[in-house]
Design brief:
3 helices, 153 residues, 60s Ribosomal Protein L30, Chain: A, alpha+beta
Amino acid sequence: MATPEERLAGLGLTLPEVVPPVAAYQPAVRTGDYVYVSGQVPIVGGKPAGTGKVGAEVTPERANELAAVCALNAIAAVKAEVGELSRVRRVVKVVGFVASEPSFTGQPQVVNGASELLGEVFGEAGTHARSAVGVAALPLDVPVEVEMIVEAG
């Protein structure tokens, strides 16, 4: 059975460095068996990979891709806390925030980008409870932000 790291490599993905906080918080905090990952935005190479509102400047398809970038950044934060991703027993909860123009209602499809990547990386352990919320604006004018809680051994 492939490890999460091997599955990432099979997808052609490399875990980035943990994105440094843009305010007064930690990227992830472990308490007991749970890791709480702060909201991760689609930062690539130190810069936002996209900006704007979904349904206006950003297409839902592009926002879905950016949600996967957020999830990859969240996975990097988890790995920094637990060492090996095979220690993740379960992705428990994912919350996705989508900066949307007022009439846009496709937030669940946008956040699927994160959920689908988590499923590909963690298999059955990647299935999770989830919320997808439309918001007026996000930090750095990014279109999507993803936070999650994982159980790890």
